[in-house]
Specification:
Layout: H1 2-52, H2 59-94, H3 112-133, H4 140-182, H5 190-224, H6 248-273, H7 280-286, E1 291-296, H8 305-308, H9 313-326, E2 335-341, H10 348-360, E3 366-370, H11 378-382, H12 390-395, H13 401-404, E4 406-407, E5 413-416, H14 425-429, H15 432-444, E6 447-451, H16 460-465, E7 470-476, H17 483-493, E8 500-507, E9 514-515, E10 524-528, E11 535-539
Length: 540
Amino acid sequence: MNKLTENYIQSEVKEKSLASKNTVVFINNQLSEMQDSLSFIEQQIQDYKNKNNITDLSLKAQTIYSKIASVESELVKSRSINNYYDYLEKYISEGQLFEGISVPTSYGIDDPAINMLIDQLVEIQIKKNILIDGGQINNPAIAQYNRQNKQLLLNLQEAINTNRYANDILIKDIEQRIVKLESSLSSIPEVERELLSIERLQAISEKVYTFLLTKRAEAKISHSSITADSKVLEPAIYLNNPPDYPKKSSNYLFAFVMAIFIPLLCILLIELLNDKIISSIDIKRRTDIPIISGLGKNYSGSSLLFDQNPKSLVFEGFRGLRTNLDFIELNQKNKTIMVTSSTSGEGKTYISENLAIAYAVSNKRTIVIGADLRRPRLYKDFNKHAKYGISNYLENSKIKIEDIILKSEDKNLDLIYSGYKPERPAELFASGRFLELIDKLKLLYDIIIIDTPPVGLVADALIISKSVDINLFVVRHKVSSKASLNFINELEKNNKFKNINIVFNDVTSSDENHYGYGYGYGYVYHSKSATSNHFSDEKV
């Protein structure tokens, strides 16, 4: 295998060297012809000057001569390109082997398509020669190379035709420019015109000669730096001898370490980049405020769970929350509970409504107040109409308390809607009339639940919290941010909130096996229902 590789590389260098040598030989032949032509023209110029007694052209003749010479150099270059196309077509028609062909760049042809096709033809010929030299004449690869070679020749002929057509158009344009310049020679004496014509031939020949010298120098430099396109990355070895490198034991150890490190790194990155609360562990890491209860995800599509199924396991979570709240202020007969959160969409109204129903079905006289005057929702869920709400009562002393209390379907549950939207809600709650309202309601009800706007957005909840016994802060799974816990910690630290408890809302079993540590030491486990497609909650 190593010897075969070595022969392949040597053959590749040999074929490249042959092509480079042929290019130099071709250019040398052209230089020889041009040298003879230049010698003849120089002698012709000298004889003409002696015969007509002329030393140099006039300034006007020299100017016209310079312009014509510049344009004619373009013409010579374009015709030289056509000569190379003739040379290529001869190669194709005679079926010559392309490994010895002169490269297009020797004629100043930079067309990428033709260069690529010739490189591919040379490469295929080299591969065929290696197989033939190795005695593999019947190798199927040779037939495949022949097919590829045939297609490449067709593509090359098409590229030649296209480029020649474009080059012919360019030649015609240059010739027209020369004719136009030559028409200006009529104003020059005939003797100078003849001399100018001869010197033009000399200038053209000199430029072609210089061009060929440059290309020969480039070809020689290229020849001296020829290397194979292929190289040996690693020599072949005997399979029965173990390699010196790589070491299997080292690789296995590295793979084992990476298998442990990468997952740990991914977990760490997920933890650092994720700003949402996923589990009760996230809460406990960031606050000492107790989690009074955890509520499972509501799949019913209804906000009022008791109306759909009073014995549902999700509603049992609210019964558990009610029980845990009873452990707080055991000796207090009337409880005022405020429900808030850091931002909207975390379930404040949903928890206020269902917690109120849970108290009502336990024969507790309960009232729920919609204190979110900016985005009220209580009236949407209970679907009852009220003329006045709490905002009307706080602003208008003529409105009585019985004017804003609305009876629900349950005899133990009453409602107070938010009312109209005032311009400055916080000032209404800071008034003494709100405190009087709470005191009057305590005489009428066992439980007062206040649904407030987010404490992280407006000051309403902070004002209302001064009038309540228990503050419930709602944290919603995968919705609430971890930064919200820092905010509630600051409120507790500065004594702006008293008796705070966290309700972990909307938890699914796929994210946490249990949750809801409270005063009653209750747990809520999720189990897959056999008769439905959603998780149910099982209270233990």
